[in-house]
Structure formats: C-alpha cells, structure tokens
Amino acid sequence: MSNPFEWLLGPNYPNLAYGLWTAVKILILVIPITLCVAFLTLWERKVIGWMQVRIGPNRVGKGWLQPFADVLKLIFKEIVVPTGANKTLFYLAPILALAPALAAWAVVPFDPTLVLADIDAGLLYLLAMTSIGVYGIILAGWASNSKYAFLGCLRSAAQIVSYEIAMGFALVGVLMAANSLNLKDIVLAQQGGLNQWYFIPLFPLFLVYFISGVAETNRHPFDVAEGESEIVAGFHVEYSGVTFALFFLAEYANMILIATLTAIMFLGGWLTPFPITNDLYVFGKPIFGDGFFWLAAKVFVVLFFFLWIRASFPRYRYDQIMRLGWKVFIPVTLIFIIFLAVVMQTPWGYLFK
Amino acid sequence: MPELATLVFYVFSAILILASAAVISVRNPVHAALFLVLAFFSAAALWMLLKAEFLAIALVLVYVGAVMVLFLFVVMMLDINVEEMRKQFRSYLPVGLLVGAAVAIEMLLVLSLAFTKKSDSAGAQGIVVDGSNTKALGIELFTRYIYAVEIAGVLLLVAIVAAIALTLRPRRETKYQNPAEQVRVERDQRLRILKLAAEQPTAVRLDAPAAPPSESSNEGRT
Questions:
Q1: How many Cα atoms sit within 13 Å of A176 on the Cβ side?
Q2: What is this structure's pTM?
Q3: Which residues of A touch B (CB under 8 A)?
Q4: Is the pLDDT of residue A207 over 70?
Q5: Percent of chain B topping pLDDT 70
Q6: Pick from A202, A243, A279: which is nearest to A96 by CA?
Q7: Looking at the partner chain, which of A124, A158, A160 has a beta carbon nearest the beta carbon of B57?
Q8: Are B134 and A323 a contacting pair at CB < 8 A?
Q9: pLDDT of amino acid B154
Q10: Are A166 and A127 in contact (CB under 8 A)?
C-alpha cells in the first residue's frame, strides 16, 4: 500500500482526504489573519499615539510583543457571567460574532490562483456572511441582562441593517461594471493599470462602500454601539477575559476583511498600478509584478485610513448616522446605479468597463 | 456506506426538522427566533446540496441577514408572557390542526405530481447542473418572466408605501431636531467675532495711601 492514509481511511479516502486537506487550508488562512489582527491592534495604538504626540506601546519587547501580552492577560482573566444572564447565549454570542468574520475569507482571492473556494456567487456569499455578523452583537446585548448592553445592541442592529443596504447597492455597481459575481473575475476586469481600477469610474460607490464599511464594522466615528462615553462599552460591557477577546478579534478581522474587499472591488486587488513593473526583473523574478504583494500593500493603506479616521473625527450623533445612511447613501447609490445602467447602453459604456 | 451527499442531506434535514419543532415549542421567544434562524440555515444548506447556490445564499442574505434581525429586534423588546398564551392553546387547537392538514394535503399534491412527472422539469435541471445558475436564473427572470418580476416589484413598492402611510403620524407636539438644517449651519450663524479696542490699563499710583481694609486684614492675620 503506497499511501498509508488510503489504507487507514478505506473506500471513502478521496472525500475524507479532501475534507482534511480543506481543513488544513482553512488553518493556513486563519492563523495569518489572527496574527494580522494582533499586529493591527499594535499598529493602531502606535498610529493614534503618534497623531496625539505620544509614543504608544513601547515596553513589552520594544512594543512588538504588546499584542501577545494583551492576549495572555485576557486569557488568564476570569469570565464573569452577570446574574440573570442567559448563560448559553452569553457564551454563544462571541462565537457568532467571530465565525462569520472568518468564514467570509473563504472566497477572497489573494492572487489569480490562491483562493480557498473559487465560487461563482462569491460576492453574494460575502454579502450574506457580513450580514449575519450582527447576530453576535445583538445576542451579546440581550443575553447580558444589562441596560447599557441592550442599548448598545439595539443601536448596532439598526445601524448595521441600514448601512448594509447602501453597501449592497455599491457592490451592485461593481458587478454591473465587471459583469460577474466572481471576485477573481472582478479583479481581472480591472486589468491594465491604475486608470482601469473601478474607483475612478465608480467613485461615488467607492466612497459609499468605504464609509459604509467603517459603519458596518462599528468603528469610529460610527462606534455608537460601544460609545464608551455614552453607554460605557455598549454590547460588550459585561464581557471579560477570553469572551471579550473574541469580540475584539471579530471587530479587527472584519476591518481587515472590509479593507481587503475595498482593495479587490475598487483598487484592482492583486494587480500592479503600473503594468510596466511586470517586466521589471529583480533576481530573475518580477517581484513587483501582479501578485500578493500589491494586495497586501493596498489593504495596508486602506487599514491606515480606518485608523486615521478614528484618530481624527469625533463620534457621530445617532440620528445623524441614520440620516447619512438612509437619506444620503441610499439615494446616491440608487441614482448612480440607474445612471450606470443607462450609460452602459450608450456608446460611452466602455468608460465603465 | 451511502454516498456522502446523502449523509449530509440527512444530517441537515434532521437539524431542519428539530429546529422547526423547537421554534413552536420553546418557551423563550428569543430562543424561538434563533431556532428559526437555524432552520433557515439548514434549508439553505439543503438548497446548496441541490446546486441551487443563488437560492441558498439569497435565503441567508434576505431572511437571516435582514428579516430575522428585525424580528429579533422586536421580539427582544417585547415582554411576552408565554404561560398566558399557553392557556389558549386548547381553544386554538382545532383551527391549527385544520390549517396544518390543509397545508399537508397541498404539499402532498404538489410533491406527488413532481415525483411522477419527470419530463417537464428536465430543461430546468439542465441549467442547474451547468454550474453558475445565478446567471441562468437572471436571464430567465429578465426575459421570460419579466412581467412577473415587474409586477412583484410594483407590489413590493406599494407595500412599502402603504406600510409607511399607515404607521406615519406626524406628532406636532414633540420637539425634534432637523439634522439637515443643523448640517447646513454656517459659522457666522453661531459665532460672532467682536473687535474690541484695547483698553489702556489705569496706572497704579504708588504715593496714594494704602487702603485701610488691607492693613486691618494683615493685622488680623498676625
């Protein structure tokens, strides 16, 4: 028997091997994301520190080990369950917050071949996954049996449902331009350098998508669900230790996801901004050509915008958040989609392809 | 050993049936709503097994992602006394059984037809197996069934307008802010910069007699 696994698993070997191999791939995907989250928290504190003329974390391993120190601290803390809390849902909520944030990564392409599941309805799948992340927040607020937590979860639910519509409409514009729901095809449709990327023809949708993304991840200046100066810490006020760490992880994983999606839909994904770098050989390899390097660079820039916005703007008032979502973004996207559909039928349609 | 897809089908069907039973049997309305979410997910998984990926993802996106969130939103804020509702269970039972039987008979009729007659659905299945049925579905909807789609769209629009018209009542006595006006505020409407002439400080005369109160206070302190 050449393959010991084949002998061990019997006739179902191909199916089981496929399942195991997929599980390994998922681990290969999830571990770097978790590490990125760890260092994103460090980078956030450093950037905000510099913007406020402070140094930021610089003690544990010159600052580099700070995220790991935080994680260790949170793991060893006691998990306090409030009196009268719904225990099952209290523990289930952080898992429900994190799982969709990680599941969405399944369809994200990192370069032309590096993708876990290259499915045709990838964009729809992403919309579905990002829309169910709100359950974690809602259940956390309700199960905690606390007024502040409940207020936070109500705010968050209303906000996410409102901004999801604008976000979905912005993506409708992208799929009209790319003529596909597959993320790989959407990136390939933007080939040909910086001027072919969708953020130029679809600029209003790009803005709406990015701002809705900030709102969807409950980040500043839309962080009314937490609102530490109004409702203490919102939905996760009762959470401590590892359960709080999971919410934290989910928020930052969502941030990286939104940044990656912005890069893929509007900034050309893994494509280089200047096609000439594809012919630039360093040590016999086009290291600045199309590839993961460019996607990582774009994601980094978009994430920096998230932090920049956080350090610059005060929090929105709640009714203004609702106004922005319903009365500004949704009409803007609707009108732009109609405009796009009309122009694509005219001889100028090539401008949007 | 049966085929893997069959096994998966039975697992998800079992979850679907158990979750549906839990929706109507658990005491806590929030738990019931969450079991309904689980039922939707299992149904989506079953559709995925049938290679109807658009329907499966749309079910999760629309029902789980939007409808159930709003449902949960309302249910969480209600204070439903389940025991009170349980008391009326007996009186509603005959009607419930009647409706249930009607639904079961209708489903039997439709499903038995589908099992016996096979030639009609062959064309549709060809499209489903083809791979991207999202595209196929889109083409069918916007060519062959365009009138149905348009009529459904108009119906939904009417429903939206009607719902707003029924629930919207202007309450003049409440005070509210107008964010549009607030956003349009200019600096000059809120802030007035006055140019004041600088005043000359009055010179302190050193030869003047010291004020008596300050002296007395000094004495008091010593």
A1: 24
A2: 0.81
A3: 11-12, 15, 86, 89, 119-121, 124-125, 127-128, 131-132, 134-135, 138-139, 142, 150, 153-154, 157-158, 160-161, 164, 181, 319-320, 323
A4: yes
A5: 78
A6: A243
A7: A124
A8: no
A9: 96
A10: no
